[in-house]
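Predict structure. Input: Acetylglutamate kinase, 301 residues.
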Amino acid sequence: MIKSVEKAAVLIEALPYLQKFAGSTVVIKYGGNAMLNDELKKNVIQDIIFLKYVGIRPVVVHGGGPEITAMLEKLGKKSEFVRGLRVSDAETVEIAEMVLVGKINSEIVKLLNFYGAKAVGISGKDADFILAVKHLAKVQEDGVTKEVDIGFVGDILRLNTALVENLLDKGYIPVIAPIGVGKDGATYNINADYVAGEIAAALGAEKLALLTDVEGIYRDYQDKSTFISTLSLAEAQVMIKDGSIEGGMIPKVEACIKALAGGVAKTHIIDGRQPHSLLLEVFTSEGIGTEVVKYRRYISG
Ligand SMILES: Nc1ncnc2c1ncn2[C@@H]1O[C@H](COP(=O)(O)OP(=O)(O)O)[C@@H](O)[C@H]1O
Ligand SMILES: CC(=O)N[C@@H](CCC(=O)OP(=O)(O)O)C(=O)O
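Output follows.
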């Protein structure tokens, strides 16, 4: 049992962060790999509500990659990824939309409302929130960079930021599904990390927190002793180039780069499997996850 004095110390430790973040916007990317059981989901939902009740403006962007993969498998379709992005033919994007908007978005909204917030779900199609264009994946072949068509995968052309700002101003928690719409009316599957990075930059958020299924970034992710607590943009770019950041971690790091370039003060990749990792990241001095920063300070001597 923790003693009352220790409980009070925990609350007092949060005081400078409560003061610092009151009124600011925090974008939370809730990844599909951090949704894997109900207890974890409840923890994340309670953390988001906690942020809201201490005066922070949380914006939730969710993924759902594993559920899309499982649904595609049920329908006899195999998933293929290029640089962390799902190759999406017309049928795949339709299923991705069904899973993301019809299932995951409405479930997160339901849970947030059940635990005491007022949440509103939106996809990129609501009020043309995410205007998208076809993404061309850049892959290296024999030392040459080639552009590859991976189907209805979108890049973000424009975000209707006013929609999210209006919701925040009225006290709602926006819950965003990463589906975009083209000028031609086509539906695009967009990696949720990119949506989170762009929306954090567009809103001038204080913080972007990406919840995933690893502790953070490793120099060699097969070797847990190579964990990195702070990574600069330049270092991250080198790690993508030399292949030590790969697959699903690439969009995350690129989202941090986008957010930092857009003026977001802090970006973090944290372990969504650790109970209340979001609260620990925001309100304690305990270092958690990997912080991606513009520049790293070197202490000499
Ligand atoms: N250098 C690295 N450090 C940590 N994880 C990495 C690294 N490179 C690739 N990864 C992979 O990225 C994964 C996280 O991305 P992803 O599976 O898309 O998660 P999410 O569903 O949360 O978006 C990790 O589980 C890990 O397999
Ligand atoms: C183009 C693309 O890759 N879209 C993603 C969208 C969901 C997502 O981003 O889910 P996670 O955050 O759980 O990975 C996909 O189809 O898996």
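The longest helix spans residues 90-114.
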